[in-house]
Structure formats: C-alpha cells, structure tokens
Design a protein that fits this description.
- The chain has 419 residues and is mainly alpha-helical.
- Helix content is 84%, strand content 0%.
- It is built from 19 helices and no strands.
C-alpha cells in the first residue's frame, strides 16, 4: 500500500520506506510490550517517567543552541561537521552546568521546576544524551544515511525495552523505566558515533576559531530558534508537567500511555516522511526558489495514509485500552478519544513544518510557537481555574491545537511557494 501511495521508484519513496522500516520496529517494540510494562509499572511510575522525558527534552532544546538544525544547510561537509561539533560542545557544557546547579541548589530546583526528587538526579544525563542523539540524527539525515539511522533506532528500542522489562523482575529499581530509556539511548549513540568516526573521520578536525566562525555565521538559529524550539517542545510536554502539577502523576501516566499508543505508531510514518521531505525540499527550494509540487504531493500522501486509521481508532479507543491494558488503564482510553483529532492534524502538519527552516522563516516560526505554547498552557489553566477537571482541560487542549495545526499547514504551504 505504501509503495502505491509513494509511487513506483524514486529516491523519495525509497528513503521514506527505509526510515519507516527501521523506525516502525523501534516504535512498535514499546507499544507491543506496553501490556507487559503496564503490569510491571504503575500509572504513577509511568507518569514520573513521562515527567523525566518532558524536562529532559525541554532542556535539550536549550543545550545545543539549535545549531543541529543548520547541519543540513552548508554545501560542504566540513562546515556541517563544525556545526555538529559546536552543537555537541554546547550540549556537554550545559549538561555539566545543570549537574552542578542541581547538586548545589537541589531544594530550590525542586520547588521551582515542580520536579519529583526521584527523577532529579537523572536529568543532566538525560539532557546530554538527548541533545547528542538529536545532533547526530541531523548529520546522518544530511548525508542520507537513512539505513544507519533506522538501525540505531531499532537497537535503541531493543535495549530500552529489554532493560525496562528486566529491572522490576531482577532488581528492585523503582525508576526502571527511566534507567532503561537512558541505556537504550546511550547504546544507540555509540552505534552512530562508531559509524561517524569510521566514515567521516577526515572532517573531525577543528579548532576554536572555526567553531566561533561557524557559530557566528548561523547565529540566527540560537537567536530565533532556541526560544521557538523551547516553546515548541514545552508546548508538547506541558500537558505532562501541568497534569503532574495540578492533578497527580497517576493522571500523567494515563496521558503518557495515550501518547505512546497514538503518537508512537503514527509518528513512525510522520517522522520518516518529515526527515526525507526536509532533505528533498531543502535541495529543491535551494535550486528553484520554491518546492510547491513536492509540498502538495507530500500533503496528499499524509492524508491518504491517515484518515482511515485515525477514524477507526476514534471509534474503538475506549474499549481498546480496556481490552489491551486492563481495567486499571480505562481512563487512558478516554484521554485517547479526546486527543485523537489533535493527533490527526499534528500528523499532517508536523512533517511539513521544516519549511520554516528551509525558507529561512525563523521569526515567523517563533510567533507560531508562542501561539502554540499559549494555547497549551492556557487550555489547562482554564480547566483548572473553572474547576472543570482534567477531561475539559484535555478537550480545550485538543481543540486549540487542532486549529493551530490547520493554520500551520496553510502557512507552510505559502512558504513552499517562496513567499
């Protein structure tokens, strides 16, 4: 079916299917083993794991200066490698800074950030590994090593799920979900670093002057995209943080399982198409000044592969969660039904959002992220303020986001025309 949708032949289809194959296996493993994990870990433990990933992901946006986003742009690999080294250096420095800050001001940090003490010690390492993996992903995307990316993602999932299943059985580790996640991420990074050194060793030489020069040349990325990227990730992660703050970590666990079941499987195809679209559109836009045909073709493919699955899931979500995960997770099925429309429009919109980078529209991206973040936080604050409970907050959240994703599709289409 996918071959028919993406057409016969062509690098775009082949690259998408390569990424889908590997990423599908990587995303499928946590979903397939979720019925076991939900019986080994409580909703509260899932909620704390989700909270850890939320804060680590938010901090990771700040730690690289968003220089990793520029890796695909230079014509020469040497400049791109300098961007990778710069992003990695910033990430390492800020991870160490966070470690020192937590060690020195632990009590204050807990109070300010609403972070549970049991996950605080893991944050610096999570920040370091997520930032490094993101930067390496953009390099491998640049050089079109999609097979290697897929390989690393599969092994990341294998290691992560294996350790998450083993820890509660063999060891008395309360945060086995977090530790397993970090081990999987670390080992997948090792795989990518080994490939990088083996194949691109000649570009690894650098000096401080070259890093400062490349940092100045692409200064618009930290200038505009750090804040917008922070808002983007914070908008996506804010429900976990706000649910944990205003309700309980148990509800955060329900919400995180919903994300795993919906966003995980559909994100496989969305991310794969987005990775390839970013590379293809960057080349076409650079040569022709527009990439309208590629944009419209990609949008059509996204619609073709999403309408039916999302419609079916919406109809059966409640019963599906009870059947697969047990009565204890019935609330997660209610959450899933509420959020399905939002995930549908997110699936259509997200792969096309790289047009902000390709068309050099960082300022416009910042404005959009402000609107998204305000909607995310505002929807939960409204629900809490009027004492309407978590379901009303989620309905507002889903509705606001659906509208913004529709607007984003129109805006990125305009950018694809070179306007």
């Amino acid at each position: 079916m996918l071959s028919k949708i993406f057409g016969v032949g062509g690098s775009f289809r082949n690259n998408v299917l390569t990424l889908i194959t590997g990423t599908a296996a990587a995303q499928a493993l946590p979903v397939v083993f979720s019925p076991l994990l939900t019986r080994l870990y409580s909703p509260e433990q899932f909620g704390l794991f989700a909270l850890f990933v939320a804060f680590s992901s938010i901090f990771a946006v700040l730690s690289t200066g968003r220089y990793e986003l520029a890796i695909i742009l230079p014509e020469k690999h040497k400049k791109a490698m300098n961007l990778l080294i710069l992003a990695t250096s910033l990430n390492l420095f800020l991870s160490l800074l966070l470690f020192i800050f937590i060690f020195s001001f632990r009590t204050d940090f807990e109070a300010i950030a609403w972070i549970n003490n049991s996950i605080l010690d893991f944050l610096p390492l999570g920040l370091l590994l997520i930032g490094l993996f993101q930067s390496l992903t953009y390099w491998f995307n640049r050089v079109k090593k999609y097979r290697e990316l897929s390989f690393s993602r599969v092994w990341q999932a294998v290691f992560m799920v294996s350790f998450q299943l083993l820890f509660p059985v063999l060891f008395d580790i309360e945060q086995g979900l977090i530790v397993g996640y970090l081990i999987g991420l670390f080992l997948s990074i090792i795989i990518l670093v080994v490939i990088l050194v083996a194949q691109y060793r000649q570009y690894l030489r650098f000096d401080l002057k070259s890093l400062l020069n490349i940092g100045g040349e692409y200064i618009q990325f930290p200038k505009f995209l750090v804040f917008s990227g922070f808002l983007n990730v914070a908008s996506g992660q804010s429900p976990i943080i706000l649910i944990n703050k205003f309700f309980t970590s148990t509800y955060s666990g329900y919400y995180s399982l919903t994300l795993r079941v919906i966003a995980g499987p559909m994100g496989i195809i969305a991310r794969a198409i987005g990775d390839v679209f970013r590379q293809e559109a960057s080349e076409v836009f650079s040569s022709n000044g527009d990439c309208t045909d590629l944009f419209k073709g990609t949008l059509k493919k996204l619609l073709l592969i999403s309408v039916l699955p999302f419609s079916i899931f919406y109809l059966i979500a409640d019963e599906l969660f009870v059947f697969v995960f047990g009565e204890a997770w019935a609330v997660a099925g209610v959450f899933a039904k509420i959020l399905t429309p939002m995930f549908f429009f997110q699936f259509i919109s997200s792969p096309l959002s790289s047009m902000y980078i390709i068309a050099n529209k960082q300022r416009e991206d910042l404005y959009l992220q402000i609107a998204i973040f305000s909607s995310a936080v505002g929807s939960f604050l409204l629900g809490v303020y009027f004492n309407q409970g978590i379901e009303v907050s989620l309905i507002l959240f889903s509705s606001f986001y659906s509208l913004i994703y529709l607007i984003n599709i129109y805006i990125t289409y305009q950018f694809s025309k070179g306007s």
